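Homework-ish question, so no full write-ups if that breaks the rules, but can someone show me the predicted structure for this set?
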Amino acid sequence: MSSRNEITKLLTFFREINPISREAEQALTNLASLVSIKKNLDLQPTGVTCRTIYFVHSGLARIYYYKDGNEITEYFAFTNDIIVRAESLFTGKPSKKAIQAVEDTVFIGIPSAQLFQLYDLFPDIERLFRKIIESAYVDTVNRIESIQFHTAEERYKQLLSENPSMIQRIPLKHIASYLGITQVSLSRIRAIR
Amino acid sequence: MSSRNEITKLLTFFREINPISREAEQALTNLASLVSIKKNLDLQPTGVTCRTIYFVHSGLARIYYYKDGNEITEYFAFTNDIIVRAESLFTGKPSKKAIQAVEDTVFIGIPSAQLFQLYDLFPDIERLFRKIIESAYVDTVNRIESIQFHTAEERYKQLLSENPSMIQRIPLKHIASYLGITQVSLSRIRAIR
DNA sequence: CCTTTCTTTTTACATATGTTAAATAATCAG
DNA sequence: CTGATTATTTAACATATGTAAAAAGAAAGG
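A: Not a homework solution, just the prediction itself:
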């Protein structure tokens, strides 16, 4: 499969969110490039300002950071999911977070500076990305509710029912920190049948 | 102060986020209207789809909902803050959440359908609101980190140092549910001097 | 295939927060 | 001002999750 075909798949996904003109699709395609990262390696390290917006083409990735010496997973991205360290991209500050391939992963990268220039030429593209962020915002608000008002056991079981493959594909230590608990707690929860 | 002057104050605030043309400002002003709500009364009830984007002109408001019969405060909005039930606005579904005035509050309301039409006429306005949502998204991601990796005591003390007036202006029961703890827990935390 | 390393589970104990109920304190309406 | 309502604190006990250390299991490299 050529690079262009891989980007076409992402454009197809974009059409469901917000259709954009053929010229706009072409402009996006010209900006986009593929990056392959082997399992457990970082796509982007901490300490650098985020200047690229990534989508997962294949594989599985995560955003993580360190808290008191412990690695915390903040987000998992599957096929077609956006993966971006928003707190750095939107503020211009160096990111304290890193992006890592959980499996061998192919990313589609779009340089943010050039994308923002396209916003001026193609309001449709700006609208597309506005809607992507709106959707991410709603997801995040819902996640706060999930964290604050469900026990770790409830959150684990919900994750298990909504996305059972995660348990197979992702080390439990990452799932534990994503759920906001220790690995020991997760193990205990899993043991209760 | 006339209604127009109150909206002018909001436009001044908008200029710092993303300047828009004079025509765009005029179009926004034409859409905007003022709503005054007395303390403890709802601006928007639950069960209805959110069709208006509000900003706080003066006073103080919150978004809340019911969880197992208990009232949970999700968000506080101060002067110039946006207050909107995003999970309903962006999905078109009825909201399970309500907006309430914590003090006598003046809101500036912008009907979402008409605002979205303005996006077509004035890409600057769409950009302004994209940036507002991006900023809200970053705030929300940071809040997840705060909830997951700080104790309730740490979160209370941070809130106290960042925004001490909240403790005076808002009943502690609302602050407790905002922090994700019971009022009893908050009281205990406060007692430790 | 074996050794090393990484991941997951188990155990024992510590602690933060929840639950329920009652006591105080503050606010509000008449 | 006064009684009623609402908000806040306190107490006693229950429970979920954290911490530390060790054991067991799985994966990876030579």
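Now go work out the reasoning yourself. Hint: Chain A touches chain B through 29 residues (CB under 8 Å).
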